[in-house]
Amino acid sequence: MDDEKKGEQEFLVSVLIPAKDEADNIGHLVNEIHRALAGHHSHEVVLVDDGSNDDTSAVFLQQCQQLGMPGRLIRHARSAGQSTALWTAARHASGRFLVTIDGDGQNDPADIPALVAQGLTMEDKHPHFCIAGFRKNRRDTRWKKIQSRIANAVRRSILDDGVPDTGCGLKLLPRETWLCLPYFDHMHRFVPALVKRLGGVIAVVPVHHRHRTAGVSKYTAWNRLWVGIVDMWGVSWLIRRSKLPLIERMEVQH
Question: CA-based, 20 to 30 A from 108: which of 27, 44, 74, 237?
Answer without folding.
Answer: 74
